[in-house]
Specification:
The protein starts with a helix and ends in a 24-residue tail after the last helix. It has one domain. Helices cover 64% and strands 6% of the residues. Helix 5 (130-163) crosses helix 7 (189-216) and helix 8 (224-244) runs antiparallel to helix 9 (248-264). It has helices at residues 2-5, 15-40, 46-71, 86-113, 130-163, 165-178, 189-216, 224-244, 248-264, 289-292, 302-322; strands at 6-7, 12-13, 116-124, 278-285. The protein has a two-stranded antiparallel ribbon with strand order 1-2. With 346 residues, it is mainly alpha-helical.
Length: 346
């Protein structure tokens, strides 16, 4: 019975239970937060929403840190937060730039077509100065993005990759059974063997994306285009960690896109945690929702799909440029378990 819960070789709880603790904590706290905000309706001030959400993020951070050290038995930095490395900050800075450029390109295209109009600047419905009104939400977005990405694209992806190691063994057994090393399939044997080695990482990438999507589709307002864009965006955000075990680029892209989209350009947002009262630009959105996303924001429009595709190409080119000597790949060995040791992912 103990073997069902405990990995004696690694002297820690098995991956399924580690994942269950963190993911159930995340979705449980998220459910309570949604119920609180939806129950309050419009009677809860934006400052109160931010304060409550920061408490939620703080609790989740403590749970994740406890699981990392006491249960997962890893250095927290192994989840992609290699903050002491110069490369991490370079990737982060480029990610912020790339995310901002992607959403700005969508805005400029809509603006020149005439689908969006600027009706005011430095919009602020509060009684405090604009800078003071906009600073807390920006810090909230930074904290939220960092923690959520660490949960889904760091902790979850690593533990799923460990859990799916059996796929490699199954694949090797299946290939041996089909005798691919002989006959007309012999030329494909090396590639098929390499695919088998990468199956755990590919499966972890896909499942981590699905979990992340489920955390972003709780409002019941998703359109097909929004769903497609979220799938593409989620795969895009998880890819840098899969290739380099570094979340700097991922966090940067998410931060650049969300901050510029909401608090600079003034696009609509789907989140129930913040209102739309403070932004550098106040926009009037027109044009077909199929292209612009309408009230759901640019993520629900076809223009954002194009931005994600181009952004993904630029991101891959950047990763390849930063890793000239050691081109990144779906390397299964970067997810090997090394208890409580700092990750050297660059």
């Amino acid at each position: 019975m103990k073997k069902f819960f405990w990995n004696q070789q690694q002297n820690r709880l098995r991956a399924f239970w580690r994942i269950l603790i963190v993911i159930s904590s995340y979705f449980g706290l998220l459910y309570l937060l949604r119920q609180l905000f939806m129950g309050a309706g419009g009677n809860l001030a934006d400052t109160s929403r931010i304060s409550i959400t920061f408490v939620h993020l703080g609790i989740l951070l403590l749970i994740l840190a406890w699981v990392a050290w006491r249960i997962d038995k890893r250095d927290f930095a192994e989840y992609g937060l290699n903050l002491w490395r110069r490369d991490w900050w370079i990737n982060f800075g480029f990610g912020v730039l790339l995310g901002g450029v992607m959403i700005t390109a969508v805005f400029l295209l809509e603006f020149f077509i005439g689908w969006v109009h600027i009706i005011d600047t430095f919009a602020n419905s509060t009684d405090i100065p604009f800078v003071l009104a906009i600073t807390p939400p920006i810090f909230f977005v930074l904290a939220d993005i960092t923690l959520v990405y660490v949960v889904f694209f760091g902790f979850l992806l690593i533990n799923l990759a460990e859990s799916f190691r059996f796929l490699e063994t199954r694949w090797v057994t299946a290939m041996e059974g089909r005798s691919l090393n002989s006959g007309r399939f012999q030329f494909a044997a090396p590639k098929l063997q390499a695919l088998g080695q990468r199956l755990p990482v590919l499966a972890a990438w896909a499942f981590a994306t699905l979990f992340f999507l489920s955390s972003r589709l709780g409002d019941g307002d998703a359109t097909k285009i929004l769903l497609y864009n979220l799938i593409r965006g989620s795969l895009l955000l998880a890819l840098p960690f899969v290739l380099t075990r570094n979340l700097g680029l991922t966090i940067g892209i998410g931060l650049g896109w969300n901050i510029i989209s909401k608090y600079v350009l003034g696009f609509s947002t789907r989140t129930i945690f913040l209102d739309d009262s403070t932004s550098v630009l106040l926009l009037k959105q027109e044009g077909p929702a199929f292209f612009t996303g309408g009230v759901l924001g640019p993520e629900a429009g076809i223009l954002a799909m194009g931005a994600l595709v181009l952004g993904g190409i630029i991101m891959l080119a950047w990763i390849r440029y930063r890793h000239k000597k050691h081109p990144p790949a779906f390397n299964p060995w970067i997810f090997e378990y090394h208890p409580n040791q700092r990750s050297d992912g660059s």
